Description:
- Keywords: NAD, Nucleotide-binding, Oxidoreductase.
- This protein is an alpha/beta fold and 358 residues long.
- The chain has two domains: 28-80 and 90-142, Rossmann fold; 158-357, Rossmann fold, CATH 3.40.50.
- It has helices at residues 65-85, 107-119, 134-141, 159-178, 195-206, 218-228, 280-287, 295-298, 301-308, 315-323, 325-339, 343-357; strands at 7-8, 28-34, 39-47, 53-60, 91-98, 124-128, 187-191, 210-214, 231-232, 245-248, 267-268, 291-292.
- Strands 1-2-3-5-4-6 form a six-stranded mixed β-sheet, sandwiched between helices.
Amino acid sequence: MNAPLAQAVALEDTSTAFDHPEFSGHEQVVFAHDPASGLRAIIAIHNTRLGPALGGCRMWGYRTSREALTDALRLSKGMTYKNALAGLPLGGGKSVIIADPKTEKTPELLKAFGRHVERLAGGYITAEDVGITAADMELIASQTGHARGTEATGLGDPSPYTALGVFTGIQAAVAHKFGTSHLTGITVSVQGLGNVGYGVCRYLHAHGAKLVVSDIHEPNVKRAVAEFGAQPIDPHQAHAADVDVYAPCALGATINAATIPQIKAKIIAGAANNQLQTPEDGVKLMQRGILYAPDYALNAGGVISVALATSSKDDAMVREKTLAIGDTLTAIFKRADLEGLPTSVVADKLAEERLMAG
Length: 358
């Protein structure tokens, strides 16, 4: 008898999913296990009011399944808001694979994940995220018709569009805060030099910005120093750099009670998801006069490309839609000023209004 395609399992702490602090009306949370490949994954579907749940797959060496669940729940809700704010006919979901992408990733594991996505019958559409490459997505897509961001389903790697959207958002934030969209002489601390962070650096450098860069991988830093004349800084001090703009482009929660008093930048605008550790952190930024570009509004370029592109001919259309992120952020900034609210609260309100409107 053949082994089951995949099965739901009780990982440690999963019995507390409903009581988890990040559980927020999620429609479905799937704990998946494939013994043959060693796959352990969580797929969280937050909301499908506007359409099937779309969100990337993240592979990370989580210490516990509770950490993985925290990420899946937070990120899936973020995707609901991101897709709504971007005007996409899609709900929000996210998946996490509990594995070190450098040492535990195998074709068999990726294919097993793809088979599990297929079993959800289109309720969840997966795509690339941290720890997953374009080549990995091809393996996943070989087992499911519900994977996007491959050459066969659109424009391939979405990271260039994410980078374009972040850059456009930085321009909008600089224009709102300093009265000019010109970036010549503007200093930016870019924390994280992966595909997106490095792409943001390219745009900023081409438009005259001065870069301070950090990454846990030293070769990435050396490359940026050589290519952009960037100044290196310790990743743990990137938030405290004496710059105009702090751009977190790695993992989330770098804006928190400990770091906010140390931030010297007048603008925070980066690609990382879930940058605020708690909702109260948005209030603290407003009180300090720091303009925060809400992450899921700013970094929507990738999901726009994944959602809308069906072939390489769609590049111009996706770029046009991604450039509109600047207009969305300007509207958020103006409404926040008018209502005296944190930009993070205003972004949530706009997304919720679109969700309610259907």
